[in-house]
């Protein structure tokens, strides 16, 4: 193998490793972003479920109060 050919092969190998490292960094970053988004999604869904329960309770109370007011109006 000539010196120039060996040097070319070494440059290609170094470039290949640099590309692989870059791809690894990008892949790790995408995984972190995905993990964050999944965690955020679960947190939002949980909070919205709690909020929905609270709204349902308030709606039932309003229905009850409206019923009480309506009965009071019919009794007078």
Automatic annotation (TrEMBL):
Record GO terms (molecular function): protein-containing complex binding
Q: Does the keyword 4Fe-4S apply?
A: no
Report the record's Gene Ontology biological process terms: actin filament organization; cell motility; regulation of actin polymerization or depolymerization
Q: Which InterPro entries match?
A: BRICK1
| Protein localization | Cytoplasm, Cytoskeleton
The keyword Transcription regulation is annotated on this UniProt entry: no
Q: Which UniProt keywords apply?
A: Coiled coil, Cytoplasm, Cytoskeleton
Q: Which residues form a coiled coil?
A: none
Annotated Gene Ontology cellular components are: cytoskeleton; SCAR complex
Q: Which family does it belong to?
A: Belongs to the BRK1 family.
Name assigned to this protein: Protein BRICK1-B
Native organism: Drosophila virilis
């Amino acid at each position: 193998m000539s010196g120039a050919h060996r040097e070319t092969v070494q440059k290609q190998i170094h470039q290949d490793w640099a590309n692989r490292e870059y791809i690894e960094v990008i892949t790790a970053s995408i995984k972190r972003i995905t993990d964050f988004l999944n965690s955020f999604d679960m947190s939002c869904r949980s909070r919205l479920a709690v909020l929905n329960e609270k709204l349902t309770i308030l709606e039932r109370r309003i229905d009850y109060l409206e019923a009480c007011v309506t009965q009071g109006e019919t009794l007078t």
